[in-house]
Amino acid sequence: MSSWLSSAVTRAEAVSDWLAPQRQASLALLRDAKWPTRKTEAWKYLPINVWDNTELQADAAESTDATSGVIEGLNSLDLVFVNGQLQSVPGDDLPAGLTVVSLADASGDARAWAAETFTAVKPARHLFGLVNDVLATQGVLIDVAAAAVIEQPIRIVNVLTKGYEAHTRVLVRLGEHAKATVIEHYVGDQRSKNTGFAEYKVGDSAYLEHYRFALQSGESLSIGGSHFELSARAELSSHLVGFGSTLQRVDVDVTHAGEHAFAKLNAIYLLDGKELFDLHSTIEHAVPNGTTEENVRGIVADNSRAVFNGRIHIHRGAQKTLAELNNRNLLMSDRAEINTKPELEIYADDVRCAHGATIAEIDKKALYYMQSRGVSRSQAQIMLNFGFINELVDQMPNQVLADWLRPQLRDRFAGMEVK
Amino acid sequence: MTEQIEKALQREYEAGFVSDIESDTFEPGLNEDIIRRISAMKEEPEWMLEWRLKAFRYWLDMEEPEWAHVHYPKIDFQSISYYSAPKSMKDKPQSLDEVDPELLKTYEKLGIPLHEQMMLAGVAVDAVFDSVSVVTTFRDKLEEAGVIFCPISEAVHKYPDLVKKYLGSVVPQRDNYYAALNCAVFTDGSFVYIPKGTKCPMELSTYFRINEQNTGQFERTLIIADEGSHVSYLEGCTAPQRDENQLHAAVVELIAMDDAEIKYSTVQNWYPGDEEGRGGIYNFVTKRGICHTSAKISWTQVETGSAVTWKYPSCILKGDNSIGEFYSVALTRGAQQADTGTKMIHLGKNTKSTIISKGISAGRSNNSYRGLVRMNSSAVGARNFTQCDSLLIGDQCGAHTFPYVESRNPTAIVEHEATTSKVSDDQMFLCQQRGLDPEKAVSMIVNGFCKEVFKELPMEFAVEAGKLLEISLEGSVG
Q1: In this predicted model, what pLDDT tens digit does every residue of B3-43 receive, in sequence order?
Q2: B371 to chain A: which residues are within 8 Å by CB?
Q3: Is the dihedral of CA B33, B35, B41, B45 positive or negative?
Q4: A360 interaction partners in chain B (CB closer than 8 Å)
Q5: What residue spans define the domains of chain B?
Q6: What's residue A137's pLDDT?
């Protein structure tokens, strides 16, 4: 057992609040859990020992800069965690139909639905999900009433600074016919550890627009996940952007629990230097007539390593399912590495499922063509990389977010070199 | 429709009969003594025994793999007998007339052309009945060309240098659990050596057959194609009906030297067990080939039998410009489970690999494709194309795809695609509208689905494979 994990278990034993029954169940699982090794399928390509071996030292001089996560031009309702501490919860001037409470202050009805949702959407198989279950005393509960349409995006910002370890949890419930946008935004490049998990219950015919900006970089270590349960005719449009860091892993799970639900999942990862990024996604089609479209693209440069594992599971009887998964990667250097594994597990015959995966370098002919037209090699390469990724950025429903992202992506491409 | 499916599912196993031959069989159990006895029976030299014992010691420390998408009761390796030989083999027959007629009848039932027809068919058969090679024909003609095709037990005596050099060079003793077991207890198998620049004058073929109850069969095949040579090897198997599970843990090693080409084709039709999955063969096979510069290895397989299949014919593309191919049709029905696929390890420059896998699931069966494509950092300009298609017949079966793609070279291009579909109503309607009955229509659609693979098979095998599929699918109209 890892020394970090045993200390986490010890710390968890001291946690006691209104979620105690759920936390106890997870703690029991955690006590029996094995620390992943190279032979653990779900962690095969990620050197998880880095997590265990990284010592944290808080730097008192380091000022906590809560503004580092600002998205210009976005009028969002911000919920900010600094090193795992929720800064403030908006008062009573919330749009009609929206309720936001901190996990610590929850009472009455909020407690009731949150207790039902906590650990109910997120699968128990994720070791760090269990860690988050037992240690995340800070979190927010977001409840969107039936038929409420919340125009203002709700943004959950996690800022991590040097030396901190943080565990935060987000629970979201959308009532029937409700509409909302939730942005999970992770910021920080200092040596820190965090787990950030979010569980979403999307009601009948509700629409959820979701963004996860896993933009922690540098020396930060981050493991987290966004987990969705879709009821009948619910729609999810989820967009993930990930930069690599010393250790970074995100799990996205979607369960089609009601018929005729639709899930669109886009994900982008851009890695440079010695960064790592691991994306696992699992789509559970538990009922008939569900549709999933998943598009994942990555650019991996220098000495970095990307992992993608995309699983689509069609349960027995989930007929008329349509599910497609596409993973395309650009490998920019002979020291970089991409490991991809698109999986299909199908137990119903009347379904249409397909997946595809490609790994290649930038098209040398295209590069040559642009150079012959007077575009410098580095500029041409940035343009080609950008075009490759921008197809998915263009699909973001919120243009303010897309506009905010593009220059950041461009900056990242500028640093990457074609070998 | 449902009736037809039922009928198809209840089809009796056609090769299910037991030949009544007295056998010389070891008592069940596995320990160093048993291995010493196997080695002694084969009159093996000391180095061979040491090699076996070393493998056995590795095996003792290894764990049974559990990652495959298959479920079966744990195998009790102590309840298996590790050696069985037809008794009449004690004084080896010099011609076909001396062969136990009961044995010959068995082959005839299976349709092996062991007599004169063989000459016409141009097939040399190294027939393995349980564990001892019975008759090897066409030896002379092959010898003329300098080709060595003999039981591996014989090769150990006659060509010890070749065996010593290459045995275990592609699949080492500690490669995996079942390979280690095979190294320790293998009883026989085929050995092929094609000399430099030689094109083997005929297709080489081995028919495996499990006969004795409770005897696992542990075949060991070693094929060496020297520089610039060419060989096509056929492997096919059926097994009689049994109630108890039988373990088949074979190892096949292929070595393609510079510019050589090996084509290895398999039609596998072991007993799949009854409707509940009782009985039936556990087919846990390790097959791997190594390609040196500009060499080519092509695996083609048609898998319709066995209760549980665990098999990944692989290529190590070590030399520059070498080529690996994998063409597979896997059909499961009843309670069959198959976890099969390939590994393509690209090490050399400009290496190429193609993977075409067609999985057909019917009944309550589960059919998985599991593959690995690895582009090492040295694989400059390497190329892979993978296509995995699954066809589901009925709503109680499963089709799964687990492809691992790993790339460390930016100039390497990897493409993987997989689709899943069923025999569509439109296709059925179109065929029936043209006057085909539903059964023929399904057969035609499935045949079309598998065409890419069948065309890779040698002629005789393609016919057999097509027929096998047709029989297996009888009435399974979706």
Answers
A1: 554 554 455 555 555 555 555 677 888 899 999 988 988 88
A2: none
A3: negative
A4: 410, 412-414
A5: 2-473
A6: 93
